[in-house]
Amino acid sequence: MNKIIKHNWQCFIIMLFLFIALLPDNSPAQEISSNEYQLRRLKLLGLMDDSSAVVLKTADAKLRNGDVTYRYRQESNCFYLTGLNETNSYLMLVPKGVEVGREKIKILFFKPDVKNDRLLNDGSSVLNSSKFILTLKSILPGLNKIYTASGDVQFVHDWLNDRMLFVERDNKKYFEAKNHGVKIKNISTIINQLREIKSEAEIASIQKAINITKDGIVSAIKICKPGCWEYQLRAAIEGEMLMQGSDYPGFPSIIGSGENSLVLHYDKDNRQMQNGDVVVMDVGAEYGGYSADITRTIPVSGKFTEAQKKIYSLVLDAQKQAIDIIKPGISIYDLDKKVLEVFAKAGMDSFLPHGVSHPLGLDVHDVASNDTLKAGMVITIEPGLYFPADAKNVGAEFRGFGVRIEDDILITTDGHKILTGNVPKEIADVEALFLNDKE
Questions:
Q1: Which of 76, 106, 335, 425 could be disulfide-bonded to 362 (CB atoms 3.0-4.6 Å)?
Q2: Are residues 234 and 91 in the same domain?
Q3: Rounded CA separation 99/102 (Å)
Protein backbone atom coordinates (compact mmCIF):
# COMPACT_ATOMS: atom_id res chain seq x y z
CA MET A 1 0.00 0.00 0.00
CA ASN A 2 2.80 2.42 0.92
CA LYS A 3 4.43 1.79 -2.46
CA ILE A 4 1.18 2.57 -4.25
CA ILE A 5 0.73 5.82 -2.28
CA LYS A 6 4.34 6.83 -2.97
CA HIS A 7 3.91 6.08 -6.70
CA ASN A 8 0.67 8.06 -6.91
CA TRP A 9 2.25 10.98 -5.07
CA GLN A 10 5.21 11.02 -7.50
CA CYS A 11 2.80 10.99 -10.45
CA PHE A 12 0.86 13.88 -8.91
CA ILE A 13 4.02 15.95 -8.48
CA ILE A 14 5.08 15.29 -12.10
CA MET A 15 1.64 16.23 -13.43
CA LEU A 16 1.63 19.39 -11.29
CA PHE A 17 4.97 20.53 -12.72
CA LEU A 18 3.77 19.79 -16.25
CA PHE A 19 0.59 21.79 -15.64
CA ILE A 20 2.55 24.78 -14.29
CA ALA A 21 4.95 24.62 -17.24
CA LEU A 22 2.03 24.88 -19.68
CA LEU A 23 0.52 27.94 -18.01
CA PRO A 24 1.05 31.33 -19.69
CA ASP A 25 4.08 33.24 -18.42
CA ASN A 26 2.34 35.84 -16.25
CA SER A 27 5.47 36.88 -14.38
CA PRO A 28 6.33 40.58 -14.75
CA ALA A 29 9.20 41.53 -17.02
CA GLN A 30 12.34 43.04 -15.53
CA GLU A 31 11.32 46.56 -14.56
CA ILE A 32 13.40 49.47 -15.74
CA SER A 33 15.08 50.90 -12.64
CA SER A 34 15.27 54.52 -11.60
CA ASN A 35 19.05 54.20 -11.98
CA GLU A 36 18.63 53.30 -15.66
CA TYR A 37 16.41 56.32 -16.28
CA GLN A 38 18.99 58.52 -14.57
CA LEU A 39 21.78 56.99 -16.67
CA ARG A 40 19.80 57.81 -19.84
CA ARG A 41 19.46 61.43 -18.76
CA LEU A 42 23.17 61.67 -18.01
CA LYS A 43 24.06 60.13 -21.38
CA LEU A 44 21.88 62.68 -23.14
CA LEU A 45 23.51 65.50 -21.18
CA GLY A 46 26.84 64.15 -22.38
CA LEU A 47 25.75 64.70 -25.98
CA MET A 48 24.92 68.36 -25.34
CA ASP A 49 26.97 71.53 -24.78
CA ASP A 50 26.40 74.45 -22.44
CA SER A 51 24.61 76.43 -25.13
CA SER A 52 21.78 73.89 -25.36
CA ALA A 53 18.93 72.50 -23.26
CA VAL A 54 16.31 69.76 -23.50
CA VAL A 55 12.75 70.75 -22.67
CA LEU A 56 10.00 68.11 -22.74
CA LYS A 57 6.36 68.07 -21.66
CA THR A 58 4.48 64.91 -20.84
CA ALA A 59 1.66 64.05 -23.24
CA ASP A 60 -1.78 65.53 -22.79
CA ALA A 61 -4.80 63.28 -22.49
CA LYS A 62 -6.26 62.67 -25.97
CA LEU A 63 -9.91 63.55 -26.47
CA ARG A 64 -12.03 60.80 -27.99
CA ASN A 65 -15.35 62.58 -28.14
CA GLY A 66 -17.32 64.94 -25.91
CA ASP A 67 -15.59 64.84 -22.54
CA VAL A 68 -14.31 61.27 -22.99
CA THR A 69 -10.57 60.71 -23.35
CA TYR A 70 -8.60 57.77 -24.71
CA ARG A 71 -6.61 55.68 -22.29
CA TYR A 72 -3.43 57.57 -21.50
CA ARG A 73 -0.16 56.87 -23.33
CA GLN A 74 2.99 58.84 -22.60
CA GLU A 75 5.07 60.57 -25.29
CA SER A 76 7.85 58.09 -26.02
CA ASN A 77 10.89 60.37 -25.60
CA CYS A 78 9.56 61.64 -22.30
CA PHE A 79 8.84 58.10 -21.12
CA TYR A 80 12.34 56.98 -22.17
CA LEU A 81 13.94 59.65 -20.00
CA THR A 82 11.57 59.63 -17.01
CA GLY A 83 9.29 56.59 -16.86
CA LEU A 84 6.51 59.01 -15.90
CA ASN A 85 3.00 58.09 -16.97
CA GLU A 86 1.14 61.29 -16.08
CA THR A 87 0.08 64.59 -17.64
CA ASN A 88 1.04 68.21 -16.90
CA SER A 89 4.66 67.47 -16.04
CA TYR A 90 7.92 68.67 -17.59
CA LEU A 91 11.56 67.62 -17.85
CA MET A 92 14.42 70.06 -18.32
CA LEU A 93 18.06 69.08 -18.97
CA VAL A 94 20.41 72.06 -18.73
CA PRO A 95 24.17 71.35 -19.05
CA LYS A 96 25.13 74.81 -17.70
CA GLY A 97 22.89 74.25 -14.67
CA VAL A 98 20.02 76.12 -13.03
CA GLU A 99 20.15 77.77 -9.61
CA VAL A 100 17.75 75.97 -7.26
CA GLY A 101 18.28 77.18 -3.73
CA ARG A 102 22.03 77.01 -3.19
CA GLU A 103 22.57 74.26 -5.74
CA LYS A 104 23.22 74.34 -9.47
CA ILE A 105 21.01 71.65 -10.97
CA LYS A 106 21.28 70.14 -14.45
CA ILE A 107 18.20 67.88 -14.33
CA LEU A 108 14.85 69.35 -13.29
CA PHE A 109 11.40 67.79 -13.06
CA PHE A 110 8.25 69.89 -12.83
CA LYS A 111 5.17 68.12 -11.43
CA PRO A 112 1.74 69.51 -10.49
CA ASP A 113 1.49 67.68 -7.16
CA VAL A 114 4.80 69.01 -5.71
CA LYS A 115 4.30 71.57 -2.93
CA ASN A 116 7.92 72.28 -2.02
CA ASP A 117 11.06 72.17 -4.14
CA ARG A 118 12.98 68.95 -3.50
CA LEU A 119 16.54 67.89 -4.24
CA LEU A 120 16.66 64.17 -5.06
CA ASN A 121 19.43 61.75 -4.12
CA ASP A 122 20.61 61.55 -7.74
CA GLY A 123 21.29 65.29 -7.84
CA SER A 124 18.17 66.27 -9.79
CA SER A 125 15.46 68.56 -8.49
CA VAL A 126 11.63 68.45 -8.48
CA LEU A 127 9.62 71.67 -8.62
CA ASN A 128 5.95 72.50 -9.01
CA SER A 129 4.75 72.72 -12.62
CA SER A 130 3.76 76.35 -12.08
CA LYS A 131 7.47 77.25 -11.99
CA PHE A 132 8.23 75.80 -15.43
CA ILE A 133 7.74 78.93 -17.57
CA LEU A 134 9.70 81.15 -15.18
CA THR A 135 12.55 78.63 -15.10
CA LEU A 136 12.52 78.32 -18.90
CA LYS A 137 12.85 82.09 -19.27
CA SER A 138 15.72 82.13 -16.80
CA ILE A 139 17.85 79.66 -18.80
CA LEU A 140 17.41 81.29 -22.22
CA PRO A 141 20.31 83.80 -21.92
CA GLY A 142 23.39 82.05 -23.32
CA LEU A 143 21.44 79.34 -25.15
CA ASN A 144 21.43 78.94 -28.92
CA LYS A 145 19.26 75.82 -29.18
CA ILE A 146 16.51 73.98 -27.33
CA TYR A 147 15.77 70.35 -28.09
CA THR A 148 12.14 69.32 -27.78
CA ALA A 149 9.82 66.61 -29.09
CA SER A 150 7.34 67.09 -31.90
CA GLY A 151 3.93 68.19 -30.69
CA ASP A 152 0.90 65.92 -30.69
CA VAL A 153 -0.60 68.08 -33.44
CA GLN A 154 1.85 69.13 -36.17
CA PHE A 155 -0.73 70.52 -38.57
CA VAL A 156 -4.51 70.90 -38.77
CA HIS A 157 -6.76 71.09 -41.80
CA ASP A 158 -9.07 74.07 -41.46
CA TRP A 159 -11.77 72.40 -43.52
CA LEU A 160 -14.15 75.37 -43.42
CA ASN A 161 -11.61 77.60 -45.17
CA ASP A 162 -9.82 74.71 -46.91
CA ARG A 163 -6.35 75.60 -45.63
CA MET A 164 -3.59 73.92 -43.64
CA LEU A 165 -2.60 75.32 -40.24
CA PHE A 166 0.96 74.22 -39.47
CA VAL A 167 0.84 74.35 -35.66
CA GLU A 168 4.30 73.00 -34.89
CA ARG A 169 6.03 75.10 -37.56
CA ASP A 170 4.23 78.30 -36.49
CA ASN A 171 4.94 77.67 -32.79
CA LYS A 172 8.62 77.25 -33.61
CA LYS A 173 8.70 80.47 -35.66
CA TYR A 174 6.91 82.39 -32.90
CA PHE A 175 9.32 81.18 -30.19
CA GLU A 176 12.45 81.88 -32.26
CA ALA A 177 11.20 85.37 -33.22
CA LYS A 178 10.52 86.19 -29.56
CA ASN A 179 13.82 84.71 -28.36
CA HIS A 180 16.36 85.91 -30.90
CA GLY A 181 19.31 83.58 -31.39
CA VAL A 182 17.64 80.51 -29.86
CA LYS A 183 16.68 77.77 -32.32
CA ILE A 184 14.20 74.97 -31.68
CA LYS A 185 15.61 71.57 -32.65
CA ASN A 186 13.94 68.17 -32.67
CA ILE A 187 15.25 65.96 -29.87
CA SER A 188 15.42 63.06 -32.31
CA THR A 189 18.75 64.41 -33.59
CA ILE A 190 20.45 63.50 -30.31
CA ILE A 191 18.22 60.95 -28.53
CA ASN A 192 17.71 58.45 -31.35
CA GLN A 193 21.26 57.11 -31.00
CA LEU A 194 20.43 56.25 -27.38
CA ARG A 195 16.92 54.88 -27.93
CA GLU A 196 17.94 52.60 -30.80
CA ILE A 197 20.21 50.49 -28.54
CA LYS A 198 18.11 48.45 -26.11
CA SER A 199 19.19 47.61 -22.56
CA GLU A 200 18.64 44.19 -20.97
CA ALA A 201 15.55 45.53 -19.21
CA GLU A 202 14.14 46.91 -22.47
CA ILE A 203 14.75 43.61 -24.25
CA ALA A 204 13.01 41.80 -21.39
CA SER A 205 9.96 44.05 -21.79
CA ILE A 206 9.88 43.44 -25.55
CA GLN A 207 10.22 39.69 -24.96
CA LYS A 208 7.35 39.78 -22.49
CA ALA A 209 5.21 41.64 -25.04
CA ILE A 210 6.15 38.99 -27.62
CA ASN A 211 5.23 36.10 -25.33
CA ILE A 212 1.83 37.66 -24.62
CA THR A 213 1.24 38.24 -28.33
CA LYS A 214 2.17 34.66 -29.11
CA ASP A 215 -0.46 33.38 -26.67
CA GLY A 216 -3.00 35.72 -28.25
CA ILE A 217 -2.26 34.36 -31.73
CA VAL A 218 -2.63 30.78 -30.49
CA SER A 219 -5.94 31.72 -28.82
CA ALA A 220 -7.18 33.13 -32.13
CA ILE A 221 -6.21 29.98 -34.01
CA LYS A 222 -8.18 27.90 -31.51
CA ILE A 223 -11.43 29.62 -32.45
CA CYS A 224 -10.70 30.21 -36.15
CA LYS A 225 -12.99 28.34 -38.56
CA PRO A 226 -15.21 29.11 -41.55
CA GLY A 227 -18.08 31.35 -40.44
CA CYS A 228 -16.02 33.05 -37.77
CA TRP A 229 -15.75 36.86 -37.89
CA GLU A 230 -12.53 38.84 -38.07
CA TYR A 231 -13.47 40.77 -34.93
CA GLN A 232 -13.73 37.48 -33.02
CA LEU A 233 -10.06 36.75 -33.76
CA ARG A 234 -9.19 40.26 -32.64
CA ALA A 235 -11.16 39.71 -29.43
CA ALA A 236 -9.26 36.48 -28.72
CA ILE A 237 -5.90 38.16 -29.28
CA GLU A 238 -6.54 41.38 -27.39
CA GLY A 239 -8.38 39.51 -24.62
CA GLU A 240 -5.22 37.47 -24.02
CA MET A 241 -3.23 40.70 -23.93
CA LEU A 242 -5.45 42.07 -21.17
CA MET A 243 -5.43 38.79 -19.25
CA GLN A 244 -1.64 38.83 -19.14
CA GLY A 245 -1.17 42.45 -18.08
CA SER A 246 -0.48 44.17 -21.39
CA ASP A 247 -1.04 47.92 -21.14
CA TYR A 248 -2.81 47.95 -24.52
CA PRO A 249 -2.04 46.87 -28.10
CA GLY A 250 1.08 48.59 -29.42
CA PHE A 251 -0.91 49.51 -32.54
CA PRO A 252 -4.39 48.79 -33.95
CA SER A 253 -4.66 45.05 -34.58
CA ILE A 254 -4.80 44.06 -38.26
CA ILE A 255 -7.03 41.04 -38.90
CA GLY A 256 -7.62 40.74 -42.64
CA SER A 257 -9.20 37.70 -44.30
CA GLY A 258 -9.91 36.94 -47.95
CA GLU A 259 -9.58 40.13 -50.03
CA ASN A 260 -8.88 42.05 -46.80
CA SER A 261 -5.56 40.22 -46.53
CA LEU A 262 -4.42 42.47 -49.40
CA VAL A 263 -4.91 45.65 -47.32
CA LEU A 264 -1.70 46.47 -45.44
CA HIS A 265 -3.32 48.39 -42.57
CA TYR A 266 -6.83 46.96 -42.65
CA ASP A 267 -8.70 47.92 -39.48
CA LYS A 268 -12.42 47.23 -39.98
CA ASP A 269 -12.48 43.61 -38.71
CA ASN A 270 -16.04 43.12 -39.98
CA ARG A 271 -15.83 40.30 -42.52
CA GLN A 272 -17.12 36.80 -41.95
CA MET A 273 -14.42 34.35 -42.96
CA GLN A 274 -15.07 31.67 -45.54
CA ASN A 275 -13.71 28.22 -46.26
CA GLY A 276 -10.57 28.57 -48.39
CA ASP A 277 -9.62 32.00 -47.03
CA VAL A 278 -6.34 32.93 -45.44
CA VAL A 279 -6.30 35.55 -42.69
CA VAL A 280 -3.35 37.87 -42.03
CA MET A 281 -2.99 38.71 -38.33
CA ASP A 282 -0.55 41.59 -37.72
CA VAL A 283 -0.68 42.21 -33.98
CA GLY A 284 1.45 43.24 -31.00
CA ALA A 285 0.96 43.67 -27.29
CA GLU A 286 2.55 46.61 -25.50
CA TYR A 287 4.16 45.82 -22.16
CA GLY A 288 5.90 48.36 -19.94
CA GLY A 289 5.77 50.81 -22.82
CA TYR A 290 7.47 48.43 -25.30
CA SER A 291 5.72 46.82 -28.25
CA ALA A 292 5.83 43.49 -30.01
CA ASP A 293 5.04 43.30 -33.74
CA ILE A 294 4.23 39.86 -35.11
CA THR A 295 2.43 38.77 -38.26
CA ARG A 296 1.16 35.30 -38.97
CA THR A 297 -0.94 34.19 -41.95
CA ILE A 298 -3.18 31.21 -41.27
CA PRO A 299 -5.71 29.14 -43.27
CA VAL A 300 -9.25 29.66 -42.02
CA SER A 301 -10.15 26.02 -42.71
CA GLY A 302 -7.04 24.74 -40.94
CA LYS A 303 -5.29 23.60 -44.13
CA PHE A 304 -3.57 25.73 -46.78
CA THR A 305 -4.52 25.13 -50.41
CA GLU A 306 -1.68 24.14 -52.75
CA ALA A 307 -1.56 27.68 -54.19
CA GLN A 308 -1.49 29.20 -50.70
CA LYS A 309 1.27 26.80 -49.68
CA LYS A 310 3.38 27.84 -52.65
CA ILE A 311 3.11 31.56 -51.86
CA TYR A 312 3.52 31.01 -48.11
CA SER A 313 6.64 28.91 -48.67
CA LEU A 314 8.12 31.58 -50.93
CA VAL A 315 7.49 34.34 -48.37
CA LEU A 316 8.90 32.18 -45.57
CA ASP A 317 12.01 31.34 -47.61
CA ALA A 318 12.61 35.03 -48.36
CA GLN A 319 12.21 35.87 -44.69
CA LYS A 320 14.66 33.17 -43.61
CA GLN A 321 17.26 34.29 -46.14
CA ALA A 322 16.93 37.89 -44.95
CA ILE A 323 17.23 36.85 -41.31
CA ASP A 324 20.35 34.80 -42.12
CA ILE A 325 22.30 37.90 -43.18
CA ILE A 326 21.39 40.02 -40.15
CA LYS A 327 24.42 41.25 -38.23
CA PRO A 328 25.91 44.59 -37.18
CA GLY A 329 26.99 46.71 -40.12
CA ILE A 330 24.43 45.71 -42.72
CA SER A 331 21.58 48.06 -43.56
CA ILE A 332 17.81 47.77 -43.65
CA TYR A 333 18.16 48.41 -47.39
CA ASP A 334 20.25 45.19 -47.57
CA LEU A 335 17.31 43.28 -46.08
CA ASP A 336 14.88 44.76 -48.61
CA LYS A 337 17.30 43.84 -51.38
CA LYS A 338 17.68 40.24 -50.21
CA VAL A 339 13.91 39.67 -50.06
CA LEU A 340 13.41 41.20 -53.52
CA GLU A 341 16.15 38.95 -54.92
CA VAL A 342 14.29 35.86 -53.70
CA PHE A 343 10.96 37.08 -55.06
CA ALA A 344 12.52 38.12 -58.38
CA LYS A 345 13.73 34.59 -59.01
CA ALA A 346 10.10 33.48 -58.82
CA GLY A 347 8.97 36.42 -60.97
CA MET A 348 6.96 37.90 -58.11
CA ASP A 349 9.02 40.86 -56.89
CA SER A 350 6.41 43.32 -58.21
CA PHE A 351 3.90 42.04 -55.64
CA LEU A 352 5.81 43.35 -52.60
CA PRO A 353 4.57 46.94 -52.02
CA HIS A 354 6.37 47.74 -48.76
CA GLY A 355 9.71 47.66 -46.96
CA VAL A 356 10.50 44.50 -45.02
CA SER A 357 11.99 45.89 -41.81
CA HIS A 358 11.79 48.64 -39.21
CA PRO A 359 13.16 49.22 -35.69
CA LEU A 360 11.00 48.16 -32.75
CA GLY A 361 10.80 49.52 -29.20
CA LEU A 362 8.77 52.18 -27.41
CA ASP A 363 7.16 52.90 -30.77
CA VAL A 364 6.14 50.04 -33.02
CA HIS A 365 7.97 51.91 -35.79
CA ASP A 366 10.77 52.90 -33.48
CA VAL A 367 13.56 55.40 -33.99
CA ALA A 368 17.06 54.89 -35.34
CA SER A 369 19.98 57.24 -35.95
CA ASN A 370 20.54 55.84 -39.46
CA ASP A 371 19.90 52.81 -41.68
CA THR A 372 22.79 50.70 -40.34
CA LEU A 373 22.13 47.84 -37.90
CA LYS A 374 23.96 47.89 -34.57
CA ALA A 375 24.25 45.42 -31.72
CA GLY A 376 21.42 46.03 -29.27
CA MET A 377 18.86 47.10 -31.86
CA VAL A 378 15.57 45.23 -32.24
CA ILE A 379 14.04 45.13 -35.71
CA THR A 380 11.27 43.33 -37.57
CA ILE A 381 11.52 41.22 -40.72
CA GLU A 382 8.18 41.17 -42.55
CA PRO A 383 8.16 40.18 -46.21
CA GLY A 384 4.84 39.67 -47.93
CA LEU A 385 3.22 38.98 -51.29
CA TYR A 386 -0.18 40.36 -52.25
CA PHE A 387 -2.14 39.41 -55.37
CA PRO A 388 -5.20 41.51 -56.24
CA ALA A 389 -8.13 39.78 -57.94
CA ASP A 390 -7.14 41.44 -61.23
CA ALA A 391 -3.39 40.79 -60.89
CA LYS A 392 -1.52 40.36 -64.17
CA ASN A 393 1.33 37.94 -64.95
CA VAL A 394 0.29 35.50 -62.25
CA GLY A 395 -1.83 32.36 -62.25
CA ALA A 396 -5.53 32.65 -61.40
CA GLU A 397 -5.06 30.36 -58.39
CA PHE A 398 -2.86 33.01 -56.73
CA ARG A 399 -5.22 35.94 -57.14
CA GLY A 400 -7.29 37.48 -54.36
CA PHE A 401 -5.16 36.91 -51.25
CA GLY A 402 -2.01 38.05 -49.50
CA VAL A 403 0.58 36.44 -47.23
CA ARG A 404 2.82 38.23 -44.73
CA ILE A 405 5.12 36.73 -42.08
CA GLU A 406 6.80 38.94 -39.48
CA ASP A 407 9.27 38.23 -36.70
CA ASP A 408 11.15 40.38 -34.19
CA ILE A 409 14.94 40.15 -34.21
CA LEU A 410 17.59 41.30 -31.72
CA ILE A 411 20.91 42.35 -33.28
CA THR A 412 23.79 40.79 -31.30
CA THR A 413 27.52 41.47 -31.44
CA ASP A 414 28.10 38.39 -33.62
CA GLY A 415 24.81 38.17 -35.50
CA HIS A 416 21.22 38.04 -34.29
CA LYS A 417 18.66 36.34 -32.07
CA ILE A 418 15.07 35.63 -33.13
CA LEU A 419 12.94 36.82 -30.21
CA THR A 420 9.74 35.43 -31.76
CA GLY A 421 11.09 31.93 -32.29
CA ASN A 422 8.35 30.57 -30.01
CA VAL A 423 5.60 31.68 -32.42
CA PRO A 424 4.82 28.87 -34.92
CA LYS A 425 5.25 29.74 -38.61
CA GLU A 426 6.24 26.55 -40.44
CA ILE A 427 3.27 25.26 -42.47
CA ALA A 428 3.16 21.96 -40.60
CA ASP A 429 3.31 23.71 -37.22
CA VAL A 430 0.56 26.18 -38.10
CA GLU A 431 -1.75 23.46 -39.41
CA ALA A 432 -0.95 21.29 -36.37
CA LEU A 433 -2.36 24.00 -34.07
CA PHE A 434 -5.70 23.62 -35.81
CA LEU A 435 -5.55 19.81 -35.64
CA ASN A 436 -4.53 19.76 -31.97
CA ASP A 437 -7.46 21.97 -31.07
CA LYS A 438 -9.90 19.66 -32.87
CA GLU A 439 -8.61 16.54 -31.11
A1: 76
A2: no
A3: 7
